[in-house]
Amino acid sequence: MLFMLVAAGALSGCPGRKQVPFGLEDAGPAEEESKADPEEALELPVGETFGADQVEIPVGESALVLQKGYALGALQIDLDGSEPLDSIAVSAELQEVQIQAAFERGLSVVAERIDSILVPSDCKEPTAEIRQLSPSLVSVRVDHACEAGTRTNVWLLTIEAQPRLRERITVLPPNEQSLAPISLTLRAEDRDSDGYEDVVADVQIGEVQVPLAWLNRPGGFARDPSQPEATFRLLADDAWAFLDSDLGGSEKRASGVLDAFIALCRESGAARIGLAGTQGIQCDQSEAAARAVAVAMVAAIRRGSFVRALELQRWSNGSGMLASSEEQALVQNAWQKAKASARASWRLLDKESATARIYFTDDDTLVVEGSAPKSIDLDKGAVSRLSSTSTIAPTRSPNGRFSVRSVRLTCAGFEAEIGPVLGKQSHRVLIERRAGTIPCQSAIDRPASVFEWAVIGWAPQGLVAASGDRLRIVPLDELAKPAGRPIDLAVGSPLPAPIRGARITPNGERYVIPHQEGVVVRDWQKGGAGLWLRPMDWDAVPGALRALAISPDGRRIALQKGSEIRLLTW
Fold first, then answer.
1. Measured between alpha carbons, how far is 187 from 202 in angstroms, rounded to an integer?
2. How many helices (H) and strands (E) does the chain have?
3. DSSP bridge pairs for 141
4. d(CA 142, CA 356)
5. Residue 316 phi/psi, 5° resolution?
6. In the chain, which end has fewer C-beta atoms inside a 10 angstrom radius, N or C?
């Protein structure tokens, strides 16, 4: 009887274990317990924020009194594993933000610097947010109101007796190339299932979200290099797949990839995300971004937005993207099949084997400077030989003393070669500095092609240079010497006039942009998509486009394609 009572007591004392036949494994928790709701996760604390002129920061039962600046916020938290509570504090003074760990030691408070940054002088009104992300990590966020928009800094700190900075992320205000809104949220999770906390920064750029991850490794946090390319690739491939069936949706996805690439990647030259004080993430030659550019260009061409397509082409070339042969063929095919803005026709005027300089002296007279200078009456078709002394350089200074002889690509960049009209001397003026920091391996000095930078005119303020859709003023003085830094013109902004040049009308209303598959005529003041002119037999004339000019009234275009000088009308 005693034995049975003891056995019954033992069984009743283990209500969470099932009774199983002898020889079988324990079946684990009782069914009722397994169905019980799990304990709700404890909500992690958020720090306190302070108003203006706050100089005391609570630390346990005492306070840290700031000697300089004022407090933005503080999070009371156990850092060293002993009572009382410690604090992570954020303070600001003038253009500096400082993060400190504060500990109560007897009757005094000891503060240790964790990190500090300087912010631009135009950034004011800082606000802070401090929150615990996990049992071992804290995030600190400080926003500044700057002239161009909000500037954000986010710190990731460890919770320990001597807190360490794991990462600092900076989000810069919008710039001319990147206007998309950016938001950032930090979270902690075991991303690679190794039992250690990793960190993910969900970066929202417009409508694209990129999860940047830092994996917890024995040597510290290491950023997962698969992002942002993995996200870009999914969106770019999706845009590519639906280009024929959903043109608008494909263009939207591709544009989202490009917006995110510009904001995130160092190669764009306009990155707004910075890590540990550096601007932009190294994305190398993003294949996904190259595919997105191809999709966006094809969509722009099919919509008839030819200037936008040229803008994308110029931008991708400047970013060093390498499109695949399939993507290049798709874009070329789109240009070839583009619906012309007007019915264009052309006729043969003359033949010239060397690259010629062509320009209109009036609406009905064209000058061709090649192996032998000549003048062509466009209405009568008469050709007159000209002496070398009777030709007038089309791109001349307002005082008539200087002219642009050529544009050349050198180790310095694209330079205009300028000299007196009546003289052999010359000097060079920089139009566009050579991209990159890699020095020239060998000397470069070649003529720029018609598709690169060109001086299309000379106005009272200086040279008017063009490259694709971009227009730039290069200021010069009366001696044709540089008088300031080049200025890129915004679309629709007034052009200085009068302008002397072959590829732009004297009033600056129209200019021509060359393309391998045709010609774009741009109405600068009116803006718009541009006129796409491509005669039906464009490919029947062999050779590449080598030179072009527009008549003063903007209604005729002369061009050299291969060895033929032709007149294009519409």
1. 8
2. 7, 36
3. 129, 154
4. 60
5. -65, -35
6. N
CB 66 within 8 A of CB 73: no
pLDDT tens sequence across 420-475: 998 889 999 999 988 765 678 788 899 998 888 999 999 999 999 999 888 999 99
Q: What is the predicted pLDDT for the residue at 24?
A: 38
Contacts of 385 (CB under 8 A, 6+ apart): 372, 373, 374
Only one residue has tokens 């954020």, namely 90
223-248 per-position pLDDT tens digit: 999 999 999 999 999 999 999 999 99
Tens digit of each residue's pLDDT (9 = 90 or more) over 24-79:
344 444 444 444 444 445 688 899 999 878 999 999 889 999 988 999 999 999 99
CB 546 within 8 A of CB 357: no
Please give the CATH number for the structural domain made up of 345-434+441-569. 2.120.10
**Secondary structure element (H or E) that encloses residue 310, with its range:** helix 306-318
SS3 299: helix
Q: How many CA atoms lie within 13 A of 78 on its CB side?
A: 6
**Dihedral sign, Cα of residue 78, residue 79, residue 80, residue 86:** negative
DSSP of 98-135, one letter per residue?
EEEEEEEETTEEEEEEEEEEE--TT-EEEEEEEEEEET
Helix (H) or strand (E) segment spanning residue 3: helix 2-12
DSSP 8-state assignment for residue 482: B
CA 473 to chain centroid, in Å, comes to 23
Q: What is the pTM of this model?
A: 0.76
Q: pLDDT value at position 42?
A: 61
* Distance from C-alpha of 258 to C-alpha of 426, rounded to nearest angstrom: 42
Q: Which segments of 320-377 are extended strands (E)? A: 345-351, 357-362, 365-369, 374-377
Give residue limits of the domains in the chain.
43-163, 174-339, 345-434+441-569
C-alpha–C-alpha distance, residues 127 and 49, integer Å: 8
Bridge partners (DSSP) of residue 465 are 455, 472
Q: State pLDDT tens for residues 113-137.
A: 999 999 999 999 999 999 999 999 9
Beta-ladder partners of 214: 199, 223
